[in-house]
What does this fold into?
Amino acid sequence: MTLELFLQHLTNGISLGSLYALIAIGYTMVYGILRLINFAHGDLIMVAAYIAFYGVGIFALPWYLSFFIAVLLSMTLGIITEKAAYKPLRNSPRITILISAIGVSFLLQNLGIVLFGGRPKAFQVPEIFAKVYNFGGVNIVGVTFFIPVITVILLILLVYLINFTKAGMAMRAVAKDYDTSSLMGIDVNRIISLTFGVGSALAAVGGIMWSLKFPQLIPTMGLMPGLKCFIAAVVGGIGNVTGAVVGGFLLGLGEILLVAFFPDLSGYRDAFSFILLIIILLVKPTGIMGEKIAEKV
Amino acid sequence: MLKINNLHVHYGGIHALRGISLEVPKNKIITLIGANGAGKSTTLRSICGLVPKTDGTIVFEGEDITSLKTTEIVKRGVTLVPEGRHVFPDLTVLENLKLGAYLRTDKSEINKDINRVYELFPRLKERKDQLAGTLSGGEQQMLAIGRALMSRPRLLMMDEPSLGLAPLIVQDVFKIIQQIHNEGMTILLIEQNASAALQIADYGYVLETGSIVLEGTGKELLNNQEVKKAYLGQS
Ligand SMILES: Nc1ncnc2c1ncn2[C@@H]1O[C@H](COP(=O)(O)OP(=O)(O)OP(=O)(O)O)[C@@H](O)[C@H]1O
Ligand SMILES: [Mg+2]
It folds into this structure.
C-alpha cells in the first residue's frame, strides 16, 4: 500500500469516525442524565436527512438554510420525544422507559415510510461537498474533509458548554442527583430538555453529513449507524462524553482500516463494531473511559 | 416566618407524617428531634417540595408554598442542607459553591459570598479546585453548609449536619451553626445529637412516628424526664 493510499484510507476513517462520535455523544449524554438508552436517537439521523432533502428539493431553499432548519426541527423532535414518551415514565422501572424508547423508534421509522415513502431517494450533495480536493497527492472528496472539521468545531463548543457554562454545570449536577440539583434552584426538567436538545442537534448534524457521504435516503437508514454509535458509546464508556468520542473514532477508523488492509474481509465490515463490542464487554465492561457504574441515589 | 399546619405525607402505604404543625419564627433556631424513622427528614423534604403532601399547609412569610415546585421554594429563600451532605462529587469545591448561587445573577456579590464561605471554612479555600468527592466527610459537610449559604437563604434547614463526624468536628459544626445564627439567620435543625441541638435551640419539637408528641424551649426539653430517657441517654 502506498503512503498516499494509506492517507486516503486514514482520512476516510477519520471522517467516518467523526460521524460516529457526533451521534454517539447523544446516546451518552442522555444515558448520563436519565440512565436510558434512547433507542430513538438513531432515527433522528433519518429525520434530519429527510428534512434537509425536502428543504432543498421541494421548498427550493439554499442548502445551508435547509440544513439549519433540519437541525432545528430534529432538535425540537428530540425534546418533544422526551416530554411525551419518557417524562411521564420517569419514576417507572427502567425497562418500561426503555420499551417506550424502542416504541418511539418504530413509530419514527414507520412514520417515515408513510410520509416519505419506502423507496430510496437520492440526496443532492452541494457542490462544495462533492468536489474533489487534492492535498499533496492525496485526493479527498470535500465531504471527507469537511466532516472532521465541523466535528472538531462542534466538539470544542460542546466541551465549552459542559465545562465552562452555568448550564453545563447544571447538566453535570443533574446527571448525578435530581433532588439535590433542584435544591440548588435548578429546573431539572429544563436541563433534561437541554440535554436532549444538544444530543439531538448533534445527531442531526451527524445525519446530514452522513447523507452527504452516503447520499441515499430510506426511512430505516438510521438503524445501522444508530446501532453502531450506541456501540461506540458503550465501548468508550457510556455516560462519558470523551469516551463516546474515543469510541466513535475507534469504530470508524477500525472499520475503514480493516477493509483497507484486509480487502478479503470487507464483507465483515459491519461485524467489526459488534466484535469490538463483545471484546470490550468481556475485557472491560464499563468501557474504555468508563468508571464503575454507581447507582443513582 | 414558616408555619406548618396539619401536614400529612404518605409514601405509598406508609403514613410518614400524621398531621404535624410547627412554627419557625424569624431569627430563631428551631430543632426537631426524634428517633430513626420518626419523619424528621420527611418534614424538611416536604417543606422543600421534594415529597408530595397529602394534606395540610405550609406557609412561608405569609405565602402558601404547599404546592410550589422546589425551584420556586428555593427562589423564595428556603434552603436545605440534605441528610448525608450530597455534595456533587465530580464537581470541584468551587463549582459546588457556584451551584449554590445558581439562581443569583449578581456576580460580584456571589464572589464576595464565596470569600465569606472561605473565611468560615478555610479548608475549603485550600481545596477549591479539588473534586468534592475527594473531600473528607467533615469537609463535605462544610461544603454542603457553605453551598447552602451561597443562595443567601432566609431560612436555612439542616438535616443531621453532624452525622458521621468525629466529636471534635461535630463541635466545630455546632459552633459554625451558632455563628451563622448570630449573624441573623433563621435555622431549622434536625439532629440525632439531641443534647447538642437542644442546647443551641430556642425551641424544639419531639417527633415520634410521624406525630409531634412534645414541644418546648430548648431548656425545657433538656430537663424533661421523657426526653432525657429517650433521646439523651440519661435516666
Ligand atoms: N422514599 C421513601 N419511600 C418509602 N418510605 C419512605 C421514604 N422515605 C422515608 N420513608 C419512610 O418514612 C418514615 C420516615 O422517614 P424519615 O426519613 O423522614 O425519618 P427520619 O426521622 O429522618 O429518620 P433518620 O433519623 O433515620 O434519618 C420511615 O418509616 C421511612 O421508612
Ligand atoms: Mg432523616
